[in-house]
Design goal:
The protein is mainly alpha-helical and 62 residues long. The chain has one domain. Helix content is 45%, strand content 0%. It is elongated and about 55 Å long.
Length: 62
């Protein structure tokens, strides 16, 4: 069975590879953009600026 990969598909794959490489470089350099969510389940994120989004209004930062 044969298949053909179009130039458009090659370009899309190259963009995906570049995105993955960039993400890996950012992780290795310790660069993390702020975002909502729980990163460390054992730490209730009391210092996170997004704590109100995660836990609701009863834990909202003042």
């Amino acid at each position: 069975m044969r298949t053909t990969i179009t130039d458009e598909q090659r370009q899309e794959f190259a963009q995906l590879v570049a995105l993955v490489e960039n993400t890996i470089r950012q992780i290795w350099s310790g660069h993390f953009l702020p975002h909502s969510g729980i990163r460390f389940p054992q730490n209730p994120c009391t210092s996170c600026s997004y704590v109100g989004l995660c836990f609701g209004s009863k834990f909202r930062k003042f």
